[in-house]
Amino acid sequence: MSTQAPTLSMVAGTTYRFSANWASEDAAATPVDITGCEAVFVVATTQGGPLLSCEIGDGIELVPEQGGINVHIRPEQTAGAVSPSWSGARYELRVTFPSGDVFSLLRGHFQLQPGVVHG
What we know:
This protein has an 8-stranded mixed sheet, with no helix packed on it. The chain starts with 7 loop residues before the first strand and ends in a 6-residue tail after the last strand. The protein has a single domain (about 10-115), classed as Immunoglobulin-like (Sandwich), CATH 2.60.40. By secondary structure, the chain is mostly beta strands. It has strands spanning about 10, 15-20, 40-45, 50-55, 60-65, 70-75, 90-95, 100-115. The chain is elongated and about 45 Å long.
C-alpha cells in the first residue's frame, strides 16, 4: 500500500468515511492478512497533540482476509471543533500486528472546514 495519501478534507460536524485495502506490492497484489491486528487513525496538531482518533470498535472496522480497513469519523467528533489548532493538522493510519510489528499505512494533511448549515 502506498503511503502517499491525499489531503483529507471534511466539514465540521458531518460524517466522514473512507476505506483502504492493504495489498502486496508485487504483480499479484495479494491482500495482506490483518487477522488479529489492531488499527488506529489519528488526526493531530502540527505539534502532535491529538485532535481526534478512531480505533477498532470505535470508528475502525477491519476486513482481515481482504486487507481492508474501514474508518468512520462521527459528526460529534468534529462538531464545533474548527479552531486554529486544526491549521496544518496531519493524519496517520497505523496497523499493529500481534507480533508487535507496526506499519504506518497512510499519512497526510487533514483539513477541517466550517459548515454553512448549523443546527
